[in-house]
Design brief:
By secondary structure, this protein is mainly alpha-helical. The chain has a domain of about 160 residues. Helices cover about 75% and strands about 0% of the residues. The protein contains 12 helices and no strands. Helix 4 runs parallel beside helix 6. The N and C termini lie far apart (about 50 Å). It is a multi-pass membrane protein. This is Energy-coupling factor transporter transmembrane protein EcfT. Keywords: Membrane, Transmembrane, Transmembrane helix.
């Protein structure tokens, strides 16, 4: 059991989880949809929570976000970070209410903000975990976004595995060349400080290696006519020919719209506003 826990919490596992997240290898409902429709779905859940203060509506939207995360098959690393942040936010709410002169209305007001941010965060996870670099870049290009923006998104995603690999290599080199503390100290704080120093020092060689990789990649893309292909309409048509709205996209957006309308109907029947408790 201990061996399995060490394997799961290793740097290699974290690196693989980041790569799976960046390249949408887990599949899921939104991975099978048109990327433009996925962005539209995300904007619905990202914008609508800001137009209401009804806790009933926000609670329903929060549940919708949780279901979307399950359907998108979000990885355990991203999900664990979200749950940890949500728990810490809940602790902050009660601490703020108890020690800073707040009351029940303060807790409910902060709970409203937590529900909004939680809904938007889960919608972001579900949408962008399901889009690989090519799909996201092509969706932005199809929506008439600047070609350089679409290229930057695609290139940024592709640089993520390289950065993680470079950091892992440089960090291991520092571990081999640096002697660990003779005594770990109370709760091993000397070891923690030693690892933090190595992590900070590892970023400087990464910057140099990344700059070299960026120059090589840009020169290779320009040699192949990447800039002209994104500006010329014929090249855009060939690149975006596979994008097509299907019945699944229409069903998901229509069902989401109905659920949002249902959330507002439920909120109108059983309204809970934080101003009611003041």
């Amino acid at each position: 059991m201990t061996r399995k826990q060490r394997d799961v919490l290793s740097v290699e596992w974290v690196k693989l989880e980041l790569i799976r997240t960046a390249y949408a290898t887990r599949g899921g409902l939104f991975a099978a949809m048109d990327p433009r429709m996925v962005l539209g779905w995300y904007l619905m859940l990202a914008i609508i929570p800001w137009f209401t203060h009804n806790l009933t509506v926000l609670a329903v939207l929060f549940v919708m976000g949780a279901v979307a995360v399950a359907l998108a098959r979000v990885g355990p690393l991203i999900l664990a970070l979200f749950v940890f942040g949500l728990i810490m936010e809940s602790v902050y709410i009660f601490v703020a209410a108890i020690f800073f002169g707040g009351d029940v209305s303060t807790v409910v007001a902060l709970l409203e903000l937590t529900l909004k941010l939680g809904t938007i965060s889960m919608a972001s996870m579900a949408a962008f975990v399901s889009l690989d670099p090519e799909k996201l870049s092509d969706a932005l290009l199809s929506l008439r976004a600047p070609a350089l923006l679409a290229f930057a998104v695609s290139y940024g995603y592709r640089m993520l595995p390289i950065l993680v690999e470079e950091f892992n290599t440089v960090f291991d080199n520092y571990r081999l060349r640096s002697a660990p503390p003779e005594k770990p100290g109370i709760l091993g704080y000397r070891t923690v400080v030693h690892w933090i120093k190595m992590a900070v020092l590892s970023f400087y060689p990464i910057f140099l290696n990344t700059a070299q990789s960026v120059r090589t990649t840009v020169e290779a893309l320009e040699t192949r006519g990447f800039t002209y292909a994104t500006v010329d309409q014929r090249g855009r048509n060939i690149r975006l020919a596979y994008l097509k709205v299907r019945w699944l996209d229409v069903v998901v957006l229509a069902l989401t719209s109905l659920l949002i309308a249902g959330a507002f109907w439920v909120g109108a029947q059983w309204p809970i506003y934080h101003t009611d408790l003041t």
